[in-house]
Write a structure and sequence with these properties.
Blueprint lengths: L8 E4 L5 E4 L2 E2 L5 H12 L5 E2 H9 L7 H16 L15 E2 L9 H17 L3 H12 L14 H27 L4 H8 L9 H13 L3 H19 L5 H11 L30 H12 L7 E6 L6 H12 L7 E5 L12 H11 L9 H12 L5 E7 L2 H4 L10 E6 L4 H7 L2 E4 L5 H12 L1 H6 L1 H10 L4 H12 L6 H9 L4 H4 L10 H10 L3 H10 L9 H8 L3 H13 L4 E3 L2 E3 L2 H14 L2 H20 L28 H24 L3 H10 L1 H7 L2 H18 L2 H17 L3 H18 L2 H14 L5 H18 L2 H17 L3 H17 L3 H17 L3 H18 L2 H11 L12 H13 L3 H19 L18
Helix pairs in contact: 1-3, 4-5, 4-6, 5-6, 6-7, 6-8, 6-16, 7-8, 8-9, 8-10, 11-12, 13-14, 17-19, 17-20, 19-21, 24-26, 24-27, 25-26, 25-28, 28-29, 28-30, 29-30, 29-31, 29-32, 30-32, 30-33, 32-33, 33-34, 33-35, 34-35, 35-36, 35-37, 36-37, 37-38, 37-39, 38-39, 39-40, 39-41, 40-41, 41-42, ...
């Protein structure tokens, strides 16, 4: 079923869920799909993350199939909702969440909240009749039946609770306005109908007693009070509040009808601790908290939660925001440290915390039972404007009984747990803190140490912040140490922290576990169940910057669903951060995880975990190999822990994946070498050839090759040595180090001769020819011709096309254009047969130059255009820049969509993305084209061509 744009969608949630396209009701599908739609509708205009949707549908124990089921529900909704124009249900740009495009005025609960605000504004202006009218319009939006009836999941249940409280709040406010108008008879029947659902609600009882009294039914009002007092005593073990007792006393003396007498001056607690002085950074996070405090929330108390890893500054932000908000909450500010992660004392129990809260509000006799305390607490705060800060919560369950049941108060919670249950059950707003950025870190250091000192050692200060992982606790610890004693240098502290194994020892104040990064992390670790603790230890071994699900499954030797559960659980404790489809462990957290891993996992177990991760990456990269290319000089296991790695669709996908994974691939090669997995080290290095040959980054390539080559030497595998020497020669050539390149290639050629390996010899000879093309052209030609003879003998289409490419380029670079075409055309055919887009692209460029030199600009333009199309599809920035530079020299007619100037600008943009050697090569092509334009007397010397595409 399709529908028009999102502007015409209308949704009802104050009864059974219904959605309309104009006047036509939409069929939203099965219950969980309908529940998915309800969650998105209630968060209209905001992106709802995949985890939030899963929490809302299944709570804190989702099935292993939750992600797949969610995808099915969203796909089903898209089919129902998508129509002409913009779809109302677009995927967010990150791919990790969804947002429903819905006009807020077409969502019933939003309309009700706006009408409620209008009614309250009318009451504030002493216009009770206008207020009653607005309340009536708001209440008319409720439909027969329970809100979201039949929909599963905790978020639907939380919505039912919230809107039920909202409706009662509106009814009570409407009753107060009718009493102000002197119309008590319009109040009594409606309030009496609410009593069965709210038998202990004292505000409801107070209004009903007042309405009965003013209607001349004082005896009924007194009888209601006696019934309520008995229920409270029998069921909850408490007495009516002081306010209700005062109202009862006033009715006994039968005063003139009027408002209930004012209660005694309430206690106004002011319990917020002192802030941290000048508050650094967190502008956006502070804005979110203050916005949550000030957002309209009729009938339900506002709740925000500040979550993040230990030491990230949650309490500091909560206290700072609390002081900013204090004036807006005239009934006081309550603060409780729940000690959810205190190393010295156990977490506060709800009963003990309630005792503190009730005492703080001046409650008289405090009931013994926890349930009775909860009831009294909610009754006392119902009509108060309190700021309640619940610091350092362990879990959502610890908080349930401490939250107000409704009313105008604002509750601010901090926790290392993401508190999914709180978000689901009470629509609490989550503000997640990450470590500071570089600017905020320097701001904090300047405040603590002094701006002048930080300015004097600016470079050291920036490095200090990096070594602290920009974690506020770590920054404050080092600032204290730098400030203490006889003016130590910031650089001295940096030197201490550079030792990774002593870093956590340095980041502590002796004798204070709460001023210790290790102490803070150990509290979080101690709370983990055994399986999650094992996962935390093992994931800490991974040397890369981020962890994919497949990597985690390999490390943990677990099926993907189990690994996903472990990742989500650790992320819920903020020991991992979610970043798209990856998980990131903070630098200091990783150091701690490695530390406890050494104590909690055997050396053999640690090595096996890393070997599994290496095998998975080897399998993944080896699946880019095609039967048409040269054979791999090693075998790869068909299966690896972490699940079968899918094959890359094309070179572009390979290059994109490697670029994204480079922060992991480089460290993996280094780790493999460090722990003695030398075969894995050199094989991973070999498999990165296509990535580096396409994407550039020659310096990274050369450094990685040196590590891989050392591992190959340690294994005694001379084939591996020769193969990597071949690659290293190419990398050095790209860096402009031709003498070193020739040395590496000649060394590799000697090994290939000893091994009598024709394929290796062919690659090395072809790359030698390409390297010598400028300085020793005749020698380069002999090497290239010898390589071509070997390639023809081996029958390798890949090597034949590569050698023809080298000869095509050598002749083109020296102005021998007919010879260039003679080698280039069959080379292009062979490259296409071997399905190697890199060789094909280089041959197209070479042929474009040759045809341009022969004066056939039409043929040259076709070759350059074909190269551009191919390179754009494969992410080959180097040849794309060459193709754009060639096309910029073509004669473009006036009025054409293309122009030489525009193409040259595009080429310059691509050149800016390349390394120096590749950029120089592009400049060389332009110089060759210039030389052709200058006429036959000008020498052709084009360093861009002649074997730029290396042979593996």
């Amino acid at each position: 079923m399709s529908m028009p744009r999102g502007d015409f969608l209308r949704v009802e949630t104050l009864g059974p869920l219904r959605a309309y396209a104009g006047e036509r009701e939409l069929t939203l599908g099965p219950p969980k799909q309908r529940a998915t739609f309800a969650i998105l509708a209630l968060r209209t205009g905001n992106t709802v993350s995949r985890d939030e949707l899963i929490d809302g549908l299944w709570g804190e124990s989702p099935p292993a199939t939750a992600v797949g089921s969610l995808h099915t529900y969203v796909s089903g909704l898209r089919r129902i909702l998508t129509g002409p124009g913009d779809p109302p249900l677009p995927t967010t740009s990150s791919g990790q969440g969804y947002a429903l495009r819905l006009d807020p005025s077409h969502l019933d609960v939003t309309v009700v909240e706006r009408l409620a605000e209008r009614a309250r504004s009318s009451r504030a202006r002493q216009e009770p009749a206008a207020a009653v009218s607005a309340y009536d319009h708001a209440l008319a939006h409720w439909q027969p039946g329970s809100p979201l009836s039949g929909l599963p999941g905790p978020l639907a249940a939380a919505h039912r609770t919230r809107v039920s409280e909202l409706r009662l709040s509106l009814l009570l406010e409407r009753a107060e306005s009718l009493l102000d108008l002197g119309q008590p008879e319009r109040v009594t029947d409606q309030l009496q109908r609410q009593l069965p659902d709210h038998p202990y609600h004292e505000r409801l009882s107070a209004l009903l007693m007042t309405a009965l009294h003013r209607s001349g039914r004082t005896a009924d009002a007194l009888a209601h009070y006696h019934g309520l007092r008995k229920r409270l005593a029998d069921d909850l073990g408490i007495d009516p509040t002081a306010e209700l007792r005062a109202l009862y006393g006033s009715l006994l003396t039968d005063p003139p009808a009027g408002p209930a007498p004012a209660a005694a001056e309430p206690v106004r607690p002011a319990q917020l601790p002192q802030g941290v002085g000048r508050f650094a950074g967190r502008a956006e996070s502070m804005r979110q908290v203050l916005e949550a405090a000030r957002a309209p929330s009729p009938g339900a108390s506002r709740i925000a939660m500040i979550v993040g890893v230990g030491g990230v500054g949650k309490t500091a932000l909560a206290v700072h925001c609390g002081h900013q908000l204090a004036d807006a909450y005239p009934d006081g500010q309550l603060y409780v440290n729940l000690r959810g992660f205190d190393p010295k004392r156990p977490a506060g129990t709800p009963a003990d915390v309630l005792h503190h809260l009730l005492t703080s509000l001046g409650a008289g006799a405090i009931p013994a039972g926890e349930e009775a305390r909860i009831a009294l607490w909610r009754s006392l705060v119902r009509n108060k404007r309190l700021l309640i800060v619940l610091d350092n919560a362990e879990s959502a369950d610890q908080l349930d009984g401490l939250l107000p049941g409704g009313g105008p108060s604002f509750t601010l919670v901090t926790s290392r747990n993401r508190l999914g249950g709180l978000a689901v059950r009470y629509s609490a707003r989550r503000v997640t803190l990450s470590p500071f950025d570089a600017g905020e870190s320097l701001e904090l250091l300047s405040d603590a140490i002094g701006g002048a000192r930080v300015g004097e050692e600016a470079t050291a200060a920036r490095r200090l912040a990096e070594l602290c992982g920009h974690l506020p606790l770590a920054l404050r610890i080092v600032a204290d140490q730098v400030s203490a004693g006889p003016r130590p240098q910031i650089a001295d502290m940096v030197a201490d922290l550079e030792d990774v194994w002593r870093r956590l020892d340095t980041l502590e104040i002796p004798g204070d576990e709460l001023a210790s990064v290790r102490g803070v992390l150990s509290c979080s670790y101690a709370k983990l169940p055994a399986e999650e603790a094992h996962a935390f230890r093992v994931l800490g071994l991974f040397p890369g910057g981020s962890i994919r699900l497949e990597t985690a499954a390999a490390l943990l030797d677990a099926p993907a669903p189990a690994a996903a559960d472990a990742l989500r659980s650790l992320a819920a404790q903020n020991l991992l951060e979610v970043s798209g489809n990856r998980y990131v462990m903070h630098d200091l957290t990783r150091i701690y995880a490695e530390e406890v891993c050494r104590g909690g996992e055997s050396a053999a177990s640690r090595r096996r975990a890393l070997e599994r991760a290496l095998r998975w990456h080897l399998q993944k990269l080896s699946r880019s190999h095609t039967p048409d290319g040269p054979p791999l000089p090693f075998g790869v296991a068909a299966e690896a822990a972490g699940g079968e790695a899918p094959r890359f669709a094309d070179r572009q996908e390979l290059v994109a994946w490697c670029a994204q994974e480079w922060e992991n691939l480089g460290p993996l090669v280094r780790t493999a070498h460090r722990i003695g997995c030398h075969d894995a080290a050199w094989q991973l290095t070999y498999l990165l050839f296509d990535y580096f040959a396409t994407a550039g980054q020659a310096q990274d390539w050369a450094e990685t090759l040196r590590i891989g080559l050392r591992s190959a030497e340690l294994t005694g595998n001379r084939t591996a040595e020769a193969a990597l020497l071949n690659h290293l020669g190419v990398a050095h050539s790209r860096l402009g180090r031709n003498a070193s390149a020739v040395e590496q290639l000649e060394h590799g050629l000697r090994l290939a001769d000893e091994l009598d390996d024709d394929l290796l010899r062919t690659s090395l000879l072809g790359n030698l020819a390409a390297t010598l093309r400028e300085t020793e052209h005749p020698v380069a030609l002999r090497y290239a011709e010898r390589a071509l003879t070997l390639a023809c003998r081996t029958g390798s289409a890949y090597h034949r096309s590569g050698c023809l490419d080298v000869l095509c380029g050598l002749h083109a670079a020296h102005g021998e254009f007919e010879e260039s075409v003679r080698y280039g055309v069959p080379g292009l055919e062979a490259a296409r047969r071997s399905r190697d887009p890199l060789l094909e692209a280089n041959l197209l460029i070479n042929l474009g130059l040759a045809e341009y030199g022969l004066g056939d600009t039409e043929a040259a333009g076709r070759y350059f255009q074909d190269a551009l199309t191919l390179c754009s599809a494969n992410g080959d920035r180097y040849h794309e820049a060459l193709a754009l530079s060639g096309l910029a020299r073509m004669p473009w007619p006036t009025g054409s969509q293309r122009s030489a100037e525009g193409l040259a600008d595009q080429a310059r943009e691509k050149v800016a993305e390349l390394g120096m050697a590749e950029a120089t090569a592009v400049t060389g092509l332009v110089a060759a084209l210039d030389a052709i334009d200058a006429g036959p007397a000008a020498p052709i010397r084009c360093t861009a061509l002649g074997g730029v595409t290396p042979l593996r």
